[in-house]
Amino acid sequence: MKISKVEAFVLSDKLQESFFFSQWEYSERRICIVKVTTDDGICGWGEGYGPADVIKAGIELITPLLIGKNPIEQETLWFEMYRKTLDYARRGVLSASISAVDVALWDLKGKVLQQPVSVLMGGQHRQKVVPYATGLYFSKSNKLTQDLADEAKNYVAQGFKAIKMKVGFSIAADVEHVQAVREALGKDIKLMIDSNHAYSLREAAELARKLEGYDIEWFEEPVSPEFYHQYRELRSKTSIPIAGGECEYLRYGFQQLLQNDSVDILQVDICAAGGLTEAKRIATLASTRGVEVIPHVWGTGIAFHAALHFIANLEPIPGRLYPPDLYIEYDRTENGIREALTAPAIQMQDGYIDVPHSPGLGIEIKEDVVRHYATEILI
User: Fold this and answer.
1) Average per-residue pLDDT in the chain?
2) Rounded to a whole number, what is the distance in angstroms from the first to the last CA of the chain?
3) What's the pLDDT tens digit per position in 181-213?
4) Is-cis flag, bond preceding 344, omega within 30?
5) Are 331 and 296 in contact (CB under 8 A)?
6) To the nearest 10°, the Cα dihedral for 248, 243, 299, 130?
7) At the topology level of CATH, where does 119-361 sit?
8) pLDDT of 379
9) Nearest partner of 141 among 156, 131, 151, judged by Cα
10) How far is 49 from 33, CA to CA, in rounded Å?
11) Taking Cα atoms as reference points, which of 255, 32, 260 lies closest to residue 242?
């Protein structure tokens, strides 16, 4: 069995209503996915996180390395892709190209061997995962505080046990928004905040100090990902756990976070940081320091299910008879591609999502949906 074709697709969906966070505005969902097919006609699907057109170009760069190779030797193929890009892309978007292909190879391998990806990764430590709703972005509404509180109540009504909201607007506005959302949620729902590195260390420390009374589960990306020492210093200034890693790539980048004691929670994005192959290595690094891993997830059902299998395989730290539940990020902002692309639909029951037991990622890709959203005309 050999790889016969690698196809990258850029999918685009214009949003009905734009939304924004501390860095920029979203008016379009633009996502790169990849299909890897064997000469036997078996295919696997993957996804990259980042600028879709650049990821597609990166996939096209590494495709010649893959054609004719055995797809189930994914670690060998991972190293060849990494070596090809090492001289000019040690960090960043080409890692997302490798990630997309790697996820597709795991999906393909699972289908060939008729096993779920999480079983092939070593086994399932858990059968279900707690999704937390990612939403509560900024808008141009003249009643934003009330809108955020109403949105939070809606997530609770849907059965979510945890919710993440955006901060980074300004310290005063953030405090107002968090206070309103906490009051809307009550004390039993977990609440996380994410500033997308909007603040200086001084500002982040001030915001953390003002929010400590609102029972915040973690403060995500409080400062620039370039400043590892500032992450470490902020941890010493607040009781709120500090999370980060969405902007790191490969085990080497995450080693910097760990060696500098920068975070309480490591947030590897499987579709950017090197795929499932590298994410498993990163999790091993984190386990040597007892650091919790909660993946960052953004995109389609492909990315979500890759994270679901990864979390199922994560070793409990610390080990005990009844280990705590683990979280998976579940983006709830507008995304027609996410809602239509994969089957079966993601279903939450009693605040949990089950880990799939079907081969591969456990999903089917609707190729008519790929054609509908593709930026190039497909036959």
Assistant:
1) 96
2) 26
3) 999 999 999 999 999 999 999 999 999 999 999
4) yes
5) no
6) 140
7) TIM Barrel (3.20.20)
8) 58
9) 151
10) 9
11) 260
- Using left for φ > 0, alpha for ψ between -120 and 50, and beta otherwise, residue 2 falls in beta
Say whether pLDDT at 179 is over 70: yes
Provide the pLDDT confidence category of residue 317 given band limits of 50, 70 and 90.
confident
Residue type, 338: R
- In CATH terms, 3-115+366-373 corresponds, of 2.30.42.10, 3.30.390.10, 3.90.1150.10, 3.30.470.20, to 3.30.390.10
What's the burial of 213, exposed, middle or buried (CB within 10 Å: 0-12/13-18/19+)? Answer: exposed
One of 125, 197, 229, 296 is an active-site residue; which one?
296
Q: What is the structure's pLDDT at 197?
A: 97
Cα gap 234→232, rounded to integer Å: 5
The CA distances from residue 242 to 195, 251, 264, 267, in Å, are: 11, 19, 5, 10
Residue type, 377: I
DSSP string, 98-165: HHHHHHHHHHHHHHHHT-BHHHHTT--S-SEEEEEEE---B-S-TTHHHHHHHHHHHHHHHT-SEEEE
Active site residue 357: no
Tokens 């086994």 -> residue: 123
Token pair, residue 121, equals 């990764």
